[in-house]
Amino acid sequence: MEFVVASSVGLLTAAGVYLMLRMRTFPVVVGLALLAYAVNVFLFASGRLTLNQPPVQIYEGPWSDPLPQALALTAIVIAFGMTAFTVILALVSFLTSGSDALDMENTDPEVARTPTKRGEDA
Amino acid sequence: MMSHWIVAPIILPSLMAPLLVLVARHDIGLQRVLSLAATAALVAISLMLATAAATGTVEVYELGNWPAPFGIVMVLDRLSALMLVMTALLALAVLVYVVGTDWDKRGAHFHALYQFQLMGLTGAMLTGDLFNLFVFFEVLLIASYGLMVHGGGKARLRAGVQYVIFNLAGSTLFVFALATLYGVTGTLNMADMAERARDLPEADVALLRTGAAMLLVVFAVKGALLPVHFWLPNTYVHAPAPVAALFAIMTKVGAYAIIRVYTLVFGPEAQVTGTMPGDWIMPVAVLTLVVGMVGVLAGGNLARVVAFAAIGSMGTMFAAVAVFTPESTLAALYYMVHSTFAAAVLFLIVDMVQSRRGTCALGVLPPIAQTGLIASLFFAGAIAMAGMPPLSGFLGKLLVLDAVRDHGGAVWVWAAILIGSLIAIVGLARAGSQLFWKPHAEGITDPGGTVAAMAPQPVGLPVAAVLALLAMIVVMTLGAGPVTAYMQDTAGQLYDTADYINAVMGRN
Q1: Burial bucket for residue A43 (CB in 10 Å: 0-12, 13-18, 19+)
Q2: In this structure, which of B45, B411, B447, B499 has its CB flanked by the most CB atoms within 10 Å?
Q3: pTM (2 d.p.)
């Protein structure tokens, strides 16, 4: 079981890093999602791999470590929210600038010429 | 007695932000009043907590009354209090500037995001738990993503995507590091981990050291150390300039985390890491310093000049951090507070210049409105940033130079700091003369009519905000005695970890 979990974390990480290096928003977002899966499994495994053991101590021991399960849950929620945000931001950026490349020229910052009403400056 | 005020800097903005969204959504005036009041209250609370922390006791607040290491604890010591005061003062000045220039009207929910940002910052500075630190990092980051793209625009959105993705990669590495540390030590409470790291079986030491090294990379990303500083220039250049001024604190959060974790958990006495953190930080700090200062010369526009000056100042600061002695940490803290205010001043001036000029590129255009006033402010800010007398940048650099004197690579650090300062002076002077001095020569034309086309800008509140930040720098200079005395106690407390650990673990 350790071998399966370890190699799947390794594979997910490798695929995630490869996709992140593609420098286009879509593969990078997918790569980040894969990295998030990898890190969640890794986090879960940090409490040691156990089978059929309760995470609460009201039952007879031995128990599995409940903390990594709670941490993985937190990390999943954060990663999911961040991925959703990145997808939307990447989409808005693509629709505004017409490019999905991640690297950009050293341009001067844009300045709004006239004071604008709330929410209309884009 | 447990003081509930410790958690107030987190609760206050976290309650104010939803209130701003739910109640004051359609009324910018009400939003401003609430946001300014909350930030002013944050200043008051931080000063009160700093007074409490100055006595030298380490105050612990157990969330939900769960004792450490089972529950999450908020810990108030001198370092946390110092960071809180700095954050609150900076946030108030920047918020006054934002209100004065109507930046908050250029997109929705500026004030709510601002408060969430403050919540993340204060939380990260108070928490005594590593996973909780990760969560507060995420809170401050997601708020900063919103602030970064506030107002929209092509370049800003693309820079925003870069910033978000860079930081998400950093966060992923953070969780990898935390899982490694938890897998070895079985705890995430910093005080508990410090104890367990001391008597670790020989077989686990390598794994713990790997976790510590990964954590160092994560904090270096936040602190914009070479070679993981690449998120900073485009973010600071394309973010709304007042937001960039607030972001001056973001790099310091990374610095804070390094100082906290690598004195408390993996401190100089810890056998597992030994001198590893300092050995790694020192060379990259010097490189960061050099790259930053060269960038000041090569910036091409004022925003990029200031962004690279901020990188250079992080390099100077980390050179002092890397020595890991009480004296060097005192120097690092003093320079950190100084450079935060100096960078914020310069970013606000960037906004003043480009809102009157239509661009902040370093070409020669006709004089802008209020050119004398803004030039004077820039002059003061540049003197502070470059580290020339009489302002606190000079004292800060002097402290840093003194602190690294006994270090093996002192020659390199001295050379880098002194030559770097000279390059920074040249770069900032050149930028200033292009923007403020040369326009007064005869026969300057304005091909695009950009300067003439700019609407008149408000002067009162924005200038007051910049003057307030400059006043902090002056206070740090004139009051250098009391300020360094407090920081000396702070540094002393950091290296005497027993107090902190005993307070957290409830062994008083």
Answers
A1: buried
A2: B45
A3: 0.92
B333 touches B490 (CB < 8 A): yes
- Of A26, A110, A1, the residue nearest B159 (C-alpha): A110
Across residues B107-129, what is the average pLDDT?
93
The residue with tokens 């990029």 is B304
Task: Look at the block and give the residue holding tokens 């919103």.
Answer: B146
With an 8 Å Cβ cutoff, is B106 touching chain A? yes
Contact A106 B152 (CB under 8 A): no
Give this complex's ipTM: 0.89
Q: Which of B425, B428, B420, B426 is nearest to B289 (CA)?
A: B420
- Residue identified by tokens 């590593």 is B130
Neighbouring C-alpha atoms within 13 Å toward the C-beta of A14: 6
Q: Where are the domains of chain B?
A: 1-274, 276-497
Q: Which H helix or E strand runs over A95?
A: helix A66-97
B46: closest CA of chain A, how far (Å) = 29
CA dihedral B375→B377→B381→B382, nearest 10 degrees, is 10
Q: Where are the beta strands (DSSP E) in chain A?
A: none
User: How far is the C-alpha of B119 from the C-alpha of B242, rounded, in Å?
Assistant: 18
Amino acid at B358: G
**Confidence check: pLDDT of B453 > 80:** no
Q: What is the pLDDT of residue A122?
A: 39
* A9-60 tens-digit pLDDT: 999 999 999 999 998 999 999 999 999 999 999 999 988 888 888 888 787 7
**A32, B167 contact by CB (below 8 A):** no
* Cα–Cα distance measured from residue B147 to residue B118, given in angstroms and rounded to the nearest whole number: 12
